[in-house]
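Check the record.
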Amino acid sequence: MSRERKIAETFVELADTLVADLDITDFSQQLANRCCDLFAIADAAVMLAHPGPQLYCAAPSDPSPALEKLLHLAPSEGPALDAYRTATPALPGDPAHTPDTWRGFTAQARESGYTYAGAVPLRLGEESIGSLLLLCTSDRPLPTDDLALAEAFADAATIGLLHARTLKHAQTVNEQLHTALRSRVVIEQGKGFLAARRELSLDDAFAVMRGFARRHRLPLTAVARHIVETGDLPRPPSAAAHQSAQGASE
């Protein structure tokens, strides 16, 4: 398969996130694998942000022992953290000439056999959700064209992940709306049943239901559902427990 075909397929894969059961680890692993296949790098890792300023490694899911040590440091210092925080590329560079703030990361990178390390942000506009860490073992930095393509992959992955998050949020909101609607229907039904049984106005029937629910710390929907099923308010929890104890003693 040609390199151009692989690049095209990668963009398609990164866009295919509008599913309810998206596995973030698999998605991140696929991005890391594609980078290793297409670029002159030894390893790649996707770092994603927790709620807040912290990063965690989403891929690779099964790193070598040497890479695992480096990834343990990557969330707290080095190019992955800088790219995430600044939303700009931390360009691949020789570990011998990296910033002082990368000191621990740089030492571990050299010990692990990496000669160059850099990262590009996963960002959309001003929102940064992580970074793509790129590691080389050759004597040359990542070519400019490959770096530009890595940025494009990171941008596409960010769009895909944000779309997936939006979809999940929309599904959650829809579920909450459906639950609220069902609850409202049950409450209205319970109010009508109680009003008819006790010859009350609808407003008075609702006040009785709400007062009962509050006194006995019961969900209003549960009280309303009991009225719909039985025609009247449930027994107070204390009275029900007392009757159960009497039945047991007899």
